[in-house]
Amino acid sequence: MNPIRASELVFEVTEEAEGGYSAECLMENIVSQGKTREELRANVKEATEAYFYDGPKPKYIRLHLVRDELLTRG
Predict the structure, then answer these.
(1) How far apart are CA 4 and CA 60, in angstroms?
(2) How far is CA 38 from CA 2, 10, 20, 35, 42, in A?
(3) What is the pLDDT along the chain (74 residues), one digit of tens a residue?
(4) Model pTM?
(5) How far apart are CA 62 and CA 49, in angstroms?
(6) How far is it, in rounded angstroms, from Cα 52 to Cα 60?
């Protein structure tokens, strides 16, 4: 793995309509979810640790919250 990529992982976080949050890593095949933002943070850390269990781990994990808004014209 490229050392620059390994230093930071970026996750796209979405708030689910049913409640809770989901996170998907944009660089690796890592996904996680949580009922609260605090639970999501802990679960993302745990999923990242498991994914990189036998190799170097990223120094930083960035959570990028995405919000969808629907605007009407008129």
Answers:
(1) 11
(2) 30, 17, 11, 8, 6
(3) 444 455 899 999 999 989 999 999 999 999 999 999 999 999 999 999 999 999 899 999 999 998 877 789 97
(4) 0.82
(5) 15
(6) 13
